[in-house]
Amino acid sequence: MSITIKDVEHVANLARLELSEQEKEQFTSQLNAILKYAEKLDELQTDGVEPTSHVLPVHNVTREDVVRESVTNETALRNAPDEEDGQFKVPAVLE
Questions:
Q1: With contact defined as beta carbons under 8 Å apart, do 2 and 39 qualify?
Q2: Which helix (H) or strand (E) holds 7?
Q3: DSSP code, position 65
Q4: Sequence ranges of the domains in the chain
Q5: 72 φ/ψ sector (left φ>0, alpha ψ -120 to 50, else beta)
Q6: Which one is the CATH code of 5-42: 1.10.1670.40, 1.10.1040.10, 1.10.20.60, 3.30.360.10?
Q7: Predicted confidence band of residue 16 (pLDDT cuts 50, 70, 90)
Q8: Is 10's pLDDT higher than 90?
Q9: With 80 as the cut, is the pLDDT of residue 1 above it?
């Protein structure tokens, strides 16, 4: 697979970028170099290699979920600039 200047122009158009002719040529060669490097992965012998999602073993390090006392409604609304019926009252954003 090879990237052409037309491909770079198409992506630039989608991203709403204005590129000079020099930038288009530069990005074309850079993207082709990346693809050429990625093609080297095809040369690797991966038979018998177990698929992984991480290079290192990762495990969940979150704390245990513990039920505890929550903030009361009055405490939560104590610093509210405005409240109504036990809820924060904010200016309308839609008409």
A1: no
A2: helix 5-14
A3: P
A4: 5-42
A5: beta
A6: 1.10.20.60
A7: very high
A8: yes
A9: no
